Amino acid sequence: LKAHLAREYRGPGENWPAMIDDGDSTSRKSSRISDLMIPLVRLRSNTDEWIECATMRREAPRLDEGELERRLGLAELTLLGIGACIGAGIFVLTGVEAKLAGPSVALAFLVAAASSIFSGFCYAELSSRLPISGSAYLYVYVVFGQLPALIVVSNQLLDYHLGFATISRSLISYVANALEGFGIPVHPCVAGCRPFESMPWLSLSLGAPFVIMMITTIVMSGSKTNATVNAVMTLMKLGIIVMVIAIGSQMVDTAKWEPFFLHGAGATMQAAATLNYAYIGYDVIANAAEEASNPQRDIPRAIIGAVLVCACFYLLMCLVLCGMQTIDEIDSAAPVSGAFVQRGMMGVAAAIDVGSVLGMFTGGIAGVYGQSRTYFALARDRMAPEALKSTPLSALWCGGLAAILAMFLDVAQLASFLNIGVLLAYSGVAASVLLINACSSKSEGQILELVVVLTALVAKGDCIWWALPGLSLVTLVSLICFESVVRSYACGPPSTFRCPCIPFTPLVALSVNVYLAAKLSWHAWVRLLVVSLVVTFGHRLAVYMDWLDVHEHKVEVCQTIRGTAEKSGTNPGLCRKTEPPGVPSPCCEKDC
Description:
- By secondary structure, this protein is an all-alpha fold.
- Helices cover 66% and strands 0% of the residues.
- The protein has 24 helices and no strands.
- The protein is globular and about 65 Å long.
- The N terminus and C terminus are likely disordered.
């Protein structure tokens, strides 16, 4: 049937995406294809062909776009991920989430690490297949199309901006504490104050924008400078953590770990969903794929190494902090130095603040770096202003947005909106790995939907019936085991790194991310709904008004993808160089 459709209904210059893309206008469809044939083509197309054609719909970097040089090695990539993870988790959200989860915040970090390591394997495979900037936006675009990719990247970028603003607010608080430790007075509004009692949501911070612009300036100077500064500060940060663990472990009172689950297991899982942002490092590493000297070898190693190293440090740090002080005594803005202030060790606290400030810069550097490369990919695909193809300008844009947020909103308010976009991106990447490697695509969509529904019932089913979460969990585990044993997932294009234990790894990654997303506050879900509706409306309006042509990237796309592969010495595995005899090429002959 597929061969018949290929002969009869695909004329010269026509592609499968031109027939099945949901953004295509009626005037662009072949006059020989009726409306009844379109869903038939959609149902009968297999995964490999669909992915290859979808790949043709985006524009890979051209050979003359040389501003992103491949100069980063394995050590630099790993330190980039470690710097991003530790800067966001230990020195910002540790105290905030300890107020919610109590000592079980250590367990929340482990749950977040478990979900991240499964998602990290998925990112590792896709980043080795497509070693160019874009990360989750690129991967979702390749597999699911333009509109889903725009929804994912919009929510993810908003998380990035909010996260960077959170880091800057906590960082300026550390600076203020360090200066006060040396006897230098600091105005309250430098770190954060509430100027109007009638507006409790407004928290003014005059120092946060200056911190953001300092970090943005470093990112604007280039990737090699970023890597050097990040390496130095990350090593300093690791030294601080080792010192805190060594000194603090001597003052731990295990009685303060009781009750371990301060507000129940549900609060712990909600904290785990927020703390998942602490492991955002591997997403930053994936964004650096276009600047890695050997991306297919180094990106997977850097992702897995960064997650494992950071998970060990998080666990030890949380146990020490919660053992040194009670939950009510924790300073949510500066939990590390505050623990030593309560012990009267002002000199140690001041030294920790100075070192923590230098270390936290790496979290900001990694955040702005990842955002700027994502905007670079969007601008290259003409989904953002062309000026953002300049990485310094895209970094400046990211810093400006974060400065506005950090100046007027406090850490707690920012944290409540975090992570829904990141978890959406992780889920999309996990589903992409499953579809790429599937041998039979007919039922993959239904399986993915079933996994999502069952996971949501595990998280929130008790609102309907008390036994529903347990029944859903048993069904979900049975489904994953059945998929792992019975179905075949070894038909994906060749790659130097393959996600281990497919479909178990991507299905578990998808389940964990959906579960963590379900545990987020309702503010995050309202934000996700609003942003997604705005993006969908804008996309449909642009297509309807002919402002956006979803097929404009067909021309020369094969040449650019193959040219990028030749330049980097890699093989994405998603674009066939030669077609078997009698099989039409997914790329038009006139374009290739």
